[in-house]
């Protein structure tokens, strides 16, 4: 049968990304990360849209060049319809629509949260794919969800954050400690040499499989303020222990709910995704759970966990096989349920 070439575009937050897939195999995967937000300690939506506007053409050119294909080989354009920042989504959406029109190829809209999950299905040596049904834990700076995945497009959110995302818990805690944005990786780094039982932060009480992280951030803030009043060098002297204790609490919160989800659904296949899945604490906890509870866990290649267009492309590929195309009148959607 004929090969399918998908050009995928992702612009939902602060990364402008484009990728080309030949069937389920990645040919190129380009991400332009916007440095402009660093000094603000978080993503500034207005600046993100402008940066997407500047980056999108070079990023798409590079993706096509590196894939070594001809534009006329492209079978369809896939793009992120949502969820995300409206201004950011609009850049990718408008561009995808124009491109589909210009090249006279079909257009495929993709849900960013489904894409984080289906990233596990990009063909990759040495990585096995989860079997249906599985539980997906999507954890990043913008998302915290547990999704029951029965099939490629049969998914149900069974738990999610009611306030901050888990990545925000890392980044906001890091900010309180005076660490640069995004502080998640730094907390992870310092936690490695710290004692996770040095300080105790209470875990939130949230019903069902939902999460809450805003209380932890406040607890960290009050704790640090109090300690620094007594000892101005408290942070410097205890950095590793503080980081280890914060990370331990966050990992416990995630694992508590995951265990509950496994119990509730009877599903022991766990696939994680999102930038926070790089965290060594969560990776170790999942690894331990394999031995302890007989779970099977799946962690994709790092470049497929953070925001990227390869994951949009794999959804595009499966939708293409289903003839699931959209009209050129499609619009971006900031809130878009799975
Ligand atoms: O998926 P991602 O690149 O972007 C979105 O937010 O969608 O995730 C970025 C988030 C940030 O909050 C960052 O601090 C966090 O992932 N992160 C980590 C680690 N690496 C990235 N958090 C904890 N430990 C890490 N090793
Ligand atoms: Zn994302």
From TrEMBL:
It comes from the Bacteria. GO terms for biological process: tRNA threonylcarbamoyladenosine modification. It catalyses: L-threonylcarbamoyladenylate + adenosine(37) in tRNA = N(6)-L-threonylcarbamoyladenosine(37) in tRNA + AMP + H(+). GO terms for molecular function: hydrolase activity; iron ion binding; tRNA N(6)-L-threonylcarbamoyladenine synthase activity. Fe cation binds at residues 112, 116, 307. Its main location: cytoplasm. Substrate binds at residues 138-142, 171, 184, 188, 279. Belongs to the KAE1 / TsaD family. Required for the formation of a threonylcarbamoyl group on adenosine at position 37 (t(6)A37) in tRNAs that read codons beginning with adenine. Is involved in the transfer of the threonylcarbamoyl moiety of threonylcarbamoyl-AMP (TC-AMP) to the N6 group of A37, together with TsaE and TsaB. TsaD likely plays a direct catalytic role in this reaction. This is tRNA N6-adenosine threonylcarbamoyltransferase. It comes from Gillisia limnaea (strain DSM 15749 / LMG 21470 / R-8282). The lineage of its organism: Bacteria, Pseudomonadati, Bacteroidota, Flavobacteriia, Flavobacteriales. The gene is tsaD.
